[in-house]
Amino acid sequence: MRKPLSIFSFNLNNKLQGRKIPAPIVESVLTLIFLALMVRGLSLLVENKQSYGKYNEFYKYSGEYEVLFCGSSHMMNAVLPMELWKDYGIHSYNIGNGAETIPVTYHVVLNALDYAAPEVLVMDVFYAYSDQILPEISKEMPHQFFDLLPLSENKLRSVREIFRDEKDRWNYIIPFSIYHSRWNELTKNDLRREDECLGGARLLLASYTLRDTLFDPPASHDIPGRPGEYIKKVKELCDERGIRLICVVNPYAMWQENRTCNVNFKKEMAELGIEFLDLREDVVDIYADSADDMHVNLCGERKVTDFYGRYLSSILPRRDSSYSSDSREIVWNERYAAYVQKKEDFLAMCEDAAPLLSDLNDPDFYFEISMRSDTVPDDTMLRMLENAKNYDNVSIMTDDDMKESLKIRIRRKDSEEYFVNRSF
Amino acid sequence: MLFNSFSFIIFFPVTAILYFMLPARFRYIWLLAASYFFYMQWNALYGLLLLYSTFTAYTGGVLLDRLKDVKPRRLCLTLCLLLSFAPLLYFKYTGFILENINGLFISAGSFAPFSIPDILLPVGISFFTFQAAGYVIDVYRGITAAEKNFMRFALFVSFFPQLVAGPIERSKNLLSQLDCDVRFDFVKARDGLWLMLWGYVMKVVIADRIGIFVDHVYDDHTVYGGVYLIIASMLFAMQIYCDFAGYSTIAIGASQILGIRLMDNFASPYLSGSVSGFWRRWHISLTSWFRDYLYIPLGGSRKGRLRGYINKLFVFTVSGLWHGAEWSFAVWGGINGLWLVLGEVLRPAGVRIFRFSRTPGVSVLIRAARCLITFILVDFTWIFFRAKTMGDALYIINSIAHAANWSILFDGSLFECGLDRKNFFFLILMTGLLLTVDMLAKKGIRLRTAFAERSLLFRSFFTAFAIAFILLFGIWGGTYNAEAFIYFQF
């Protein structure tokens, strides 16, 4: 006679005897149910929260996007969709991701278009110089996009094409296989999933001083075979769905420094019949607007976004000026409010002066900068402050009574309360 | 195909379900096909090697069955064993033999050494060669009747759960079960599943976690000296136990699900009070193979005490070389043989010393001390087993003997060798669990039996929990380069 465990007040064995359901079947089914619940719970606990944070909003509002921005970190760190909506009324999402080669971008687009139906696809082709499908060193990067992507035929196809190693493929099909080892680094933040509210972009509060040494510019060369093929594939994908494809190269400091990766984009794109924009010259002040040698900072992101806003406005159907009143726009307004809050949180966490100054052209905030007259900022900061003279949300004052050499106060435009009040 | 691979997780349930759906007369053919598929996942050509081994032993068995006179039978046995062991000698020992010949030539002044061929050792060759050879000897001795059905015999040699890392089964036990005329028994299958899960805990939760630390320290033993090496050597003793016993347990569990009972291969070896006791509980199928097919034919201990000691030393040295074609393995085996001989020589003195151990209270301490001493003696030999060369082993022993960096036990340095603090403490917890299970098993208490008597709800929850536990805490997937089971290389 089997005895039930005391914590369970009933004996399921006996109950089932009357119903003629074989106990082994019930036990097996119950085991599977328990297992599914446990694995699901554990998966949620240990999952890559960044992937959820960045891409959940893409799926949540996927039917609303008129423009998708895709490509490498050069896209992810260059376009601010929430500001594009605020300033130009364009609904967009930035699905760009770090170290994303052209073949991977093709697969990201292939899967993203299962959910979204944009009118325009803006694709960064910076990595067109690389003939690799995915460098070994970057093989974890596509997790950002693929982890949250539901299992589908296209996802399986993409994983099969991107990864040669079977273990890597399994890691992408079952992300738990890679994240379960996070059990020892869980924090309370892992108990909840949270949208980033940034429209897929990254806010780079940073500054970068261009290196003095300028290398000789290498001879320009053509786009290698493989990325060229994949750009064509993206073009075909867009043509099938009536999407306008615009390939772009966004600004970055190293271009200025040594003309790295001088791929002959213009010629190749013309041959492929693809609309091409090269933003490396003129759009940003690379001496003040760089976060590092490869990416622009938040100020630069805003300038790039503004460029796209103007360009896209000229090609997209004219929007009704009363767009802000319909129910969809109410949601976008709420999203924008959350976005501003995020920006505020990031600024409040900044401990250095230069990163704070990399957001001076932010129309949502008012910046008050006080300096002693004997303060000598470095060249980059000086350039940032120089540029800020054109912004009406920045006031720069000289105050020799200050003990510190520099003081930065930031408040929302509609508030008198400063959420940043730092001295340096 | 590794037991801890995605492929096996799909392969095994599919094999088992189809196995029970097929009529009994076709089942062994299905298992044979599955076994070859399983083995050929490593290299399709290995299938030919398996086939050769099967064919040699099968033919030998049939011929021995027909021959009646002693001389032809002996000749047939000798020929058959030579042919059976030839691939093992070639794949495993060619390099070792040539290296040693070269060493002799160089020391004798010769300048034309043999070039050492780069021969890849086929997975599990030592296991299935010994199993097939054991069968031929059994037929010769009349212990087993020769199997006439070639495919059934082929399944005996290639049965996938125990093909690549044992247990090395005896024909008497396994062949008779390969009629596969069994009904699916849910209770036995669940018990088999639980066995498999415990095997996975030993392998992927404990052994592979320890492996990270041990590899880190041993691979850089000139940097991590003294106490690091003491800890790593102690942990390696647990690693190799959990790795190998884990594999055996998974194999036994998987077979049980298919309705086939394999022999036990480990029985709480580290709870032994003597080295001879340890070897009765460690890799039982191999130890008993050497006992039955080498030690006893050599005369065992029947031809005098001295001859018995020499036989022991010889058998253990051969056993060492079975594990690897390196002198360090031979030394490992030889020292274990030496411990056994010393154990016998000192037994009378030991009996006098431990006479008072029958006093209540003292006996527990004495037993614990004996287990500890046995562990230290065995663990010392593991250094030769784990080190890449004899030179490394001697360096490590010297470093341990001069250990002075005891501060690493307290300053957190230990947690910078691949396992962070949480993983290290988790490992200690799991080792505690392992010892508890072993102690209970030694007392004849089986947790599985106790769990099986609980309610259906409890059993379901327990099974799911065990799987989820392994999935969460196991070293597998992305951040883990799935290590091969250590015993595959033999």
Explain how this protein is built:
The complex is a heterodimer of chains A (424) and B (490). Chain A has helices at residues 12-19, 23-46, 49-60, 73-76, 81-88, 102-112, 143-146, 153-162, 166-173, 176-179, 225-241, 253-258, 265-272, 298-315, 327-349, 353-357, 379-388; strands at residues 67-70, 92-94, 120-124, 244-249, 275-278, 365-371, 394-398, 406-412, 418-423. Chain A is an alpha/beta fold and 424 residues long. Chain A folds into 3 domains: 12-45, no CATH class; 48-183 and 193-318, SGNH hydrolase (Rossmann fold, 3-Layer(aba) Sandwich); 350-423, Glutaredoxin, CATH 3.40.30. In chain A, helix 17 (379-388) links the parallel strand 6 and strand 7 (394-398). Chain B folds into 3 domains: 6-181, no CATH class; 186-266 and 387-490, no CATH class; 273-384, no CATH class. Chain B has helices at 6-21, 24-40, 46-66, 70-107, 125-141, 150-158, 160-163, 171-174, 186-218, 227-257, 275-281, 284-295, 305-323, 327-353, 362-386, 390-401, 421-442, 447-452, 456-473. The longest helix of chain B is centred in the first third of the chain and has 38 residues, at 70-107. Residues 480-490 of chain B have low confidence and may be disordered. The chains are: A alpha/beta (424), B mainly alpha (490). The A-B interface holds A 2-5, 8, 11-13, 16, 23-24, 26-27, 30-35, 37-39, 42, 46, 140, 166-168, 170-171, 174, 176-181, 183-184 and B 6, 186, 190, 420, 422-423, 426, 453-461, 463-465, 467-468, 471-480, 482.
CATH class label of the largest domain in chain A: Alpha Beta
CATH superfamily of the largest domain in chain A: SGNH hydrolase
Q: What count of domains describes the coordinates of chain A?
A: 3
Q: How widely separated are the two ends of chain B? A: 16 Å
Overall average residue pLDDT of chain B? 89
**Which percent band covers the strand fraction of chain A?**
5-15%
Give the low-confidence spans of chain A: 1-10
* Strand coverage percent of chain B: under 5%
| DSSP helical segment count of chain A | 17
Largest interface: A-B, 39 and 32 residues
* Main β sheet profile of chain B: none
Number of domains of chain B: 3
Please tell me the CATH architecture of the largest domain in chain A by its name: 3-Layer(aba) Sandwich
